[in-house]
């Protein structure tokens, strides 16, 4: 009996195994006729047979092993959960995920089973770490960095559109708590903040923040809100009430005090743990303290802490648990925060003459921003114009940010190869080859720009360009000057063929002229006092080149007019941001040293403070285009282009003008009592705060307490104009 049963079972298995592919897929009985079975002949199919792999049978030993492993994993998970305090928030966010209100809508996670795991493996440890087995921290099916962006784009766009509609509803219904300030003023400041993010990246992802602000979800925190309002008050609404509370908010004291109180409070020390909203707030505070308040050391520290948290959370690599176990929205937020920090790191490295902390070789995050809502949303000139209005032009925020990230990667290479501390040890020919290679990268970047970003000065129709687009192009031309000026200014590179120096300076001169054209375009349609502050750096870099050309030409030369234009622009920009003040000082002293008459430039504003805590400038809503300085007036149509014959310039005199400071002793009458230290081959200098003693120029660097009378430079000492680093 057993033999008969075993024989029939064996035959049944053989029949199943011998079924053709078509019959097996359709679960049909196959008669195995040759050359085609009946079913394949009936359906007109090719009759093929594939060999099936034999599956291993579940033995008792394998089952016991799996049960033991399951028990060990459960015990480990319970131990980790017990070790976490019930009051401890999620290390990624300040609030648990289930605090989101169903009324405001929550996108469904694309990894529902992995969300519990994400709260455990929140810290990043690389492959060399002894703390974690890196290979087992990430699910094996989620290590691919390729993003299936088709459906994700649609989902993010739909959620962004929905949340934009809900913003007004939540504001009217009182769900948006601005923590003590009037809701209408808070809403206006938030609108200003969203409008100012275009030129520097998306530190805060608007749909997630506004949704969670209504329900105190994980993408919202009081610290982040006050940091955003602190950034926004640099550009206050034109119509303000005169009450004390409103004025206190507008000059920034309220929001900074609240943010720093939350940051340093003892009962919930936010700096002792890595939280995404804290990293975002630190990035925003660093930007405002640097560009607005001129507190460069504190800004540098805040930026460093934000970068440390970003690395700790694993936002710098797509292979971390953050990207592999979280929702598509969280991944979008992570990419935007990382690249915003990367860009800010490069901008501050250029301004402060310090090595970047986020290096491209240590990071692996795709430059890919899938939410396209703010890409096609109509641009509003709020905070960019004296008469704000909605323009018939898409904001192009996403594509501009993408190109800014790519340009920042090239900027890092320039800083590392030409301005590193050990670069002066390299052979000049090696550096020349590196610069030519980097020039090709810059040219390729420019050629690959999408048509809506590749704007040519003088050929664009009105309003076919935007402030952040012009800022992007100004950064491109500034990098060209940074790339080639060392071959004119630095002593050990001047030993190359003189034709190389001539070619390098011609390249810088052409770039400086293009920056001047960009300034003309910007001035025609937008307010120069509120422009993105990298335009201030581009203006300064352009002015250092025009000053040297103007020194060799007649008083009416185009280069002198361009230099005066740069001084005019910087004088306007310092009204709203204080970063241009130092650039303006350096250019004025450089013009005096080179013998270029620029007239008398008056400070854009001056103030005295009686309250030591009031460290912020007072803003009066005035016409953005009103000139409140006194340089020689230059009409835009008077500046046509660069002086025609650059070959006639005395390149040796220009080269000597860069190192003139080393050939003069400090005046005996104590006019120049500061100390200058040239570092490496960067052309950088560190000058103490008393460098302008006796010049009538105040250099108070504590907070934002500035006292600037007339910018008279009659008694100014000899000064070096650095491109990298403003450590004065």
Automatic annotation (TrEMBL):
Chain intervals for the UniProt region annotation (Disordered): 80-114
Gene3D superfamilies the record matches: Zn(2)-C6 fungal-type DNA-binding domain
Record-annotated membrane-spanning stretches: none
One of the GO biological process terms: DNA-templated transcription
GO molecular function: DNA binding; DNA-binding transcription factor activity, RNA polymerase II-specific; zinc ion binding
Highest rank taxon of the organism: Eukaryota
Protein location: Nucleus
Ranges of residues in domain Zn(2)-C6 fungal-type: 19-49
Coiled coil: none
Keywords assigned by UniProt, alphabetized: DNA-binding, Metal-binding, Nucleus, Transcription, Transcription regulation, Zinc
Positions with biased composition (Basic and acidic residues): 91-102
Protein name: Zn(2)-C6 fungal-type domain-containing protein
Organism whose genome encodes this protein: Periconia macrospinosa
């Amino acid at each position: 009996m057993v033999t008969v049963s075993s024989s029939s079972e064996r035959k049944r298995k053989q029949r199943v195994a011998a079924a053709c592919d078509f019959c097996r897929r359709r679960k049909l009985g196959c008669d195995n006729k040759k050359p085609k079975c009946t079913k394949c002949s009936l359906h007109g199919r090719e009759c093929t047979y594939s060999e099936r792999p034999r599956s291993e049978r579940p033995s008792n030993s394998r089952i016991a092993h799996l049960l033991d492993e399951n028990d060990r994993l459960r015990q480990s998970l319970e131990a980790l959960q017990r070790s976490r305090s019930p009051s401890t928030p999620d290390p990624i966010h300040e609030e648990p995920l289930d605090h989101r209100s169903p009324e405001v809508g929550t996108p469904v996670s694309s990894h529902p089973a992995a969300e519990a795991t994400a709260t455990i493996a929140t810290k990043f440890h690389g492959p060399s770490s002894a703390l974690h087995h890196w290979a087992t921290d990430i699910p094996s099916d989620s290590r691919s960095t390729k993003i299936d962006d088709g459906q994700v784009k649609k989902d993010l766009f739909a959620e962004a559109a929905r949340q934009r509609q809900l913003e007004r509803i939540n504001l009217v219904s009182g769900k948006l708590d601005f923590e003590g300030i009037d809701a209408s003023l808070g809403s206006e400041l938030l609108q200003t903040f969203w409008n100012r993010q275009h030129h520097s990246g998306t530190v805060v992802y608007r749909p997630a923040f506004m949704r969670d602000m209504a329900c105190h979800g994980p993408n919202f925190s009081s610290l982040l809100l006050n940091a955003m309002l602190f950034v926004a008050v640099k550009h206050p609404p034109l119509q303000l009430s005169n009450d004390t509370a409103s004025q206190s908010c507008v000059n920034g004291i309220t929001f900074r005090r609240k943010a720093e109180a939350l940051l340093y409070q003892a009962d919930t020390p936010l700096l002792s743990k890595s939280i995404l909203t804290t990293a975002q707030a630190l990035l925003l505070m660093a930007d405002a303290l640097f560009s607005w308040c001129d507190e460069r050391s504190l800004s540098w520290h805040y930026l460093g802490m934000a970068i440390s948290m970003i690395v700790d959370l694993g936002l710098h690599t797509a292979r971390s648990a953050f990207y592999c176990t979280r929702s598509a929205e969280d991944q979008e937020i992570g990419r935007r925060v990382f690249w915003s920090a990367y860009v800010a790191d490069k901008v501050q490295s250029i301004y402060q003459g310090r090595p970047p902390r986020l290096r491209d070789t240590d990071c692996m995050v795709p430059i890919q921003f899938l939410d396209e809502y703010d890409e096609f949303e109509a641009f509003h000139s709020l905070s960019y114009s004296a008469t704000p209005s909605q323009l018939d032009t898409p904001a192009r925020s996403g594509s501009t940010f993408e190109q800014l990230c790519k340009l920042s990667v090239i900027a890092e290479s320039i800083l590392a190869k030409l301005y590193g501390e050990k670069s002066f040890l390299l052979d000049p020919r090696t550096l020349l080859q590196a610069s030519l290679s980097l020039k090709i990268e810059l040219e390729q970047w420019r050629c690959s720009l999408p048509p809506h970003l590749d704007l040519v000065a003088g050929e664009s129709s009105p309003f076919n360009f935007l402030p952040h687009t012009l800022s992007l192009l100004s950064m491109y031309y500034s990098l060209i000057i940074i790339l080639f000026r060392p071959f004119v200014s630095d002593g050990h590179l001047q030993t190359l063929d003189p034709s190389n120096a001539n070619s390098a300076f011609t390249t810088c001169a052409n770039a400086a002229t293009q920056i001047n054209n960009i300034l003309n375009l910007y001035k025609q349609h937008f307010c120069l006092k509120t422009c993105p502050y990298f335009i201030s750096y581009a203006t300064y870099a352009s002015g250092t080149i025009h000053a040297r050309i103007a020194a060799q030409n007649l008083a009416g030369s185009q280069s002198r007019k361009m230099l005066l234009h740069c001084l005019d622009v910087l004088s306007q920009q310092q009204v709203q941001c204080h970063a241009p003040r130092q650039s303006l000082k350096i250019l004025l002293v450089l013009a005096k040293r080179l013998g270029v008459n620029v007239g008398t430039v008056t400070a854009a504003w001056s103030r005295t403070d009686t309250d030591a805590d009031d460290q912020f400038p007072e803003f009066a809503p005035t016409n953005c285009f009103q000139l409140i300085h006194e340089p020689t007036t230059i009409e835009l149509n008077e500046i046509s282009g660069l002086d025609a014959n650059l070959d006639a310039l005395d390149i040796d005199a220009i080269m000597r003008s860069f190192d003139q400071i080393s050939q003069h002793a400090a005046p005996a009458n104590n006019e120049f009592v500061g100390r200058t230290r040239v570092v490496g081959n960067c052309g950088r200098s560190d000058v103490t705060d008393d460098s302008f003693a006796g010049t009538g120029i105040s250099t108070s660097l504590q907070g934002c307490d500035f006292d600037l009378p007339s910018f008279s430079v009659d008694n100014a000492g000899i000064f070096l104009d650095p491109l990298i680093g403003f450590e004065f």
